[in-house]
Amino acid sequence: MTTASICTIGDEILIGQIVDTNSSYISRELNAIGIRISGMVSIGDNHDRIINTLRNELKNNDIVITTGGLGPTKDDITKAALAELSGSSRYVVHEGQKEVVYRILHSRGLEVLDINEQQALVPEKCEVIVNKLGTAPVMVFRFEDEEFGHPATLYSLPGVPFEALGAVPDVLADIKSHYKLSSITHRNIMVYGMAESALSKLIEPWEDALPSDMHLAYLPNQLTGIRLRLSVYGGEEKDNISRIEDRFAELKSILGDMVYSDADDTLQGTIGRLLKGSGKTLSAAESCTGGEIAHLITTVPGASEYFLGSVTSYAPSVKNRVLGVSMETIETCGIVSSEVAAAMAEGVRKLTGSTYAVATTGWADAYGDEHEPAGTVWVGIAGPGGTKTSKFNYRNDRNRNIERFSASALNELRKMIVSDLKA
Prior knowledge:
The protein is an alpha/beta fold.
């Protein structure tokens, strides 16, 4: 299978001055045409380090794609390093890129300086893909077997994301014309309600029985749970999809309602699909999550069809006056309790007239009381069939607890909606 490495060049990434978004985009595009990414490397603005790193990457990969270091200023030294790497002894003017340089600068009312014209100078042993969006060309260096033990190609792209990503289609077309590519097939299912280690133990026999060409990855996220990704490298995509679906069908029988989606999805997105077009509606009453649940729900396009609104009832007085939670319940059972969570959900459901309501009350940080310790949340879900409560305890910092509280609440809501749909 054809492999590739993606290298970013420039001190600005290493010191955290900018975030590298180019590599993630390029890796997705390469993966989509059947190229396996072996690694991503960031290299500082050092001539020798650029050469040594790229030599190593070319030795271990069929393709290397670099971004950055191609500007007109003196600190952009990539072109000189690539000239030495390719054995070029001189530079030549690429007329196509020179025309673009003049066009761009004249369109901005700027004078073309010598330093601008130098952008069209390229090492003699490179091919050029004209960068129509900027002044620095995409340089292509092809190496024969004797250099690295196998044929290898290096593509040097500018670092500006607009220009780099704009050049990707031309780079992909060039790759397709020079390499015989295999397929890579990925499929995901989303799981919520079990820690990664426990999930791994539960499905260990199933995972051990996977064919040798099928690979499982665990991708945890506290807001979405665990994405389980099955990948097959090589073969026919249609056959691979069928094989993966068969394996996932086996997995679903093991995990039951912990599986909430057959795609790369979110809990709020799944809830949205369950409610859209159903005529059923939703509201929220939040204390410890401070509006995070409402925020997540409204990130889904079309949420206005089913989400009526929310109450952030942080203070006991708001729980009492707005949601109708009795002060006796709060004082007797504790502000963080099953009884208060249930009353909050029922109160906001009545207030808004929604079909379903979700509520949270908990301690997100170091506080607690005689009833519940820090990190505890009670979730209340009210619906046509009644009200259910669940307790969760997480020992994280405040922000992480809020995210996990919110995700747990959305998952409990999802389970009630699914249960009602099956009834």
